[in-house]
Amino acid sequence: xxxxxxxxxxxxxxxxxxWFTMKFVWPPLQRAMHERQKQIADGLAAAERGRQExxxxxxxxxxxxxxxxxxxxxxxxxxxxxxxQIVEEAKNVAKTEGERLLTGAKAEIEQEVxxxxxxxxxxxxxxxxxxxxxxxxxxxxxxxxxELLTQIQGRF
Amino acid sequence: xxxxxxxxxEYIVHHLTNLKVGTGFWSLHLDTLIISGLLGxxxxxxxxxxxxxxxxxxxxxxxxxxxxxxxxxxxQVRDTFHGKSELITPLAITIFVWVFVMNAMDLxxxxxxxxLLGLTGVPYLKVVPTTDPNATFAMSITVFxxxxxxxxxxxxxxxxxxxxLTVPFGKWLFPINIMFRVIEDLAKPISxxxxxxxxxxxxxxVFILIALLGLAQxxxxxxxxxxxxxxxxxxxxxxxxxTIVYMAMAHESH
Lengths: 156, 254
What we know:
The complex is a heterodimer. By secondary structure, chain A is mostly helical. Chain A has helices spanning about 5-140, 140-155. In chain A, helix 1 packs antiparallel against helix 2 (about 140-155). The longest helix of chain A is centred in the middle third of the chain and has 134 residues, at about 5-140. Chain B has one domain (about 10-250). Chain B is built from 8 helices and 2 strands, in the order αββααααααα. Chain B has helices spanning about 10-15, 30-50, 60-80, 90-105, 110-120, 135-165, 175-210, 215-250; strands at about 20, 30. In chain B, a hairpin with a 6-residue loop joins strand 1 (about 20) and strand 2 (about 30). In chain B, helix 2 (about 30-50) packs across helix 4. Chain B is globular and about 65 Å long. The chains are: A mainly alpha, B mainly alpha. The interface of A and B includes residues 3, 11, 18, 20 and 36 of A.
């Protein structure tokens, strides 16, 4: 054991290195580590927040979907109702229209029949007169029976 | 192996002699001073370079390694030392890192540096600074002075005096208390320094003895070196840990 002034020299080195570490090595390292720690903590918190937001969004989506489904159902029912209503109305309209047309046609037919009857009557009368004329031409003197014939013609 | 014309004893003594200038107390062990100084400058310079460029982003491998080491030391400090101090963690870092690199010089084969520098005419070289009690006592005495400083600073002169007089046996047995305190406080730096010195000196001695075995040297030196990695780290850690404990004791009243 040879203790000498080297002791003092070594103590100087030691003190110097302590000072150096305290001044230049430890503070920046500590700062960097603290900062990273904070960043990681922030990142984790953000991730947690994101996860929660995602959960909420999923829940909201579910709600909106359910609501939409309900609305769609409602609309479907309404549309059904409206459709049957429209069909009913159309049926009614068609029925009335048909009846109207039928009535019109009937009236026209009656008129036609009347007109035909009229024409027939005239023709039959003419025929009868012609027939009678021919018979009478042979049997009866026209002059004698003229008065009678006019009477019959008038009766038709 | 030993150089020609040397007995084993001469070889061992040669390896255990410091490169010394001056006589008496006012002499210097140049090898201890230069090697420990260079090692400190290299390792703390490296740490400074990394620390200066340290970012909070993804750290590179070197920054990561240094941060892990520093973080481990800081965790030890925070576990043991509950006060607030700007000094304790840097002090612990300095002790652990410096003692570790000085101890690690033990892993360089014992003849390598002395022979290399012997060629340039350096007669003696003791490579491991911590096998020089001057280095270990310089650290332990500095720690002791810091301990005294914090004792007085935290407790005040009155508080410190009262603690010395009354702990552990109460005020009526104050002479015994003082004696206990003196022994306790003196034992701290002495045990701190001698533990490190003894371990490293013994380890170095084993390396030198193995080196004398000739061809069997690699067979034994490699396992011993691997085992010695443990001792190197452990002694650095123990020195650091005890320093933290002493500092914590200086900050807390009994």
